[in-house]
C-alpha cells in the first residue's frame, strides 16, 4: 500500500498543450497536491514507465490520465500494451479524452481502463472533473505499492 504521507504521482499522457495546461491548472486551482508528470504520446509514456533514456529515474505513477488521439502511439494501443505487462498492468488508467464514441469507450474498458471521462468543453466543468478525479482516485481508493 502507498504510505499516506507520500506524494501521489499522476502521469498525464496528452499531446494537446491546451488540455495539458487545463489538467495542470485543475490540480492547482483545486489545491490538489500531486506530482504531475506529463508526456505527449504513448511512445514517450512507455519510455517513462520503463525508465528508459531521459526517464531513467522516473517514478512509478499512482494513476495514468490517458488521451486517446495522439501521434506515434495512440492511447488505446498504449493501454492495450501496458495492461499485458507486470507490474504495469496494476496502474489504474483513466481515459481522459474528447471522444464520446461508443467504440472508444468499449475498447478502453476492454483493454483494461479503470475509467473513461469525456473532457468537458467548459473550463469550470473541466475543473470539476479534476476535482472528482481527486476525490475518488487520490482520497478514496486504496492503491497497491509498486
UniProtKB/TrEMBL annotation:
The keyword Glycoprotein does not apply. Residues 9-134 form the Response regulatory domain. PROSITE patterns: RESPONSE_REGULATORY (PS50110). The modification 4-aspartylphosphate is found at residue 67. Keywords: Phosphoprotein. GO terms for biological process: phosphorelay signal transduction system. It comes from the Bacteria. PANTHER family: RESPONSE REGULATOR RCP1-RELATED. This is Response regulator.
Amino acid at each position: 500500500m502507498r504510505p499516506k504521507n507520500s506524494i501521489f504521482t499522476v502521469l498525464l499522457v496528452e499531446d494537446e498543450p491546451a488540455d495539458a495546461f487545463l489538467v495542470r491548472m485543475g490540480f492547482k486551482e483545486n489545491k490538489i497536491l500531486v506530482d504531475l508528470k506529463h508526456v505527449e504520446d504513448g511512445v514517450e509514456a512507455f519510455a517513462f514507465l520503463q525508465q528508459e533514456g531521459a526517464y531513467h529515474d522516473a517514478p512509478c505513477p499512482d494513476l495514468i490520465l490517458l488521451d486517446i488521439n495522439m501521434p506515434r502511439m495512440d492511447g488505446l494501443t498504449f493501454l492495450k500494451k501496458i495492461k499485458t505487462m507486470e507490474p504495469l498492468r496494476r496502474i489504474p488508467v483513466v481515459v481522459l479524452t474528447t471522444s464520446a464514441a461508443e467504440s472508444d469507450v468499449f475498447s478502453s474498458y476492454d483493454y483494461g481502463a479503470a475509467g473513461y471521462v469525456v473532457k468537458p468543453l467548459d473550463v469550470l466543468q473541466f475543473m470539476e472533473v479534476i476535482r472528482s478525479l481527486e476525490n475518488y482516485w487520490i482520497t478514496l481508493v486504496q492503491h497497491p505499492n509498486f
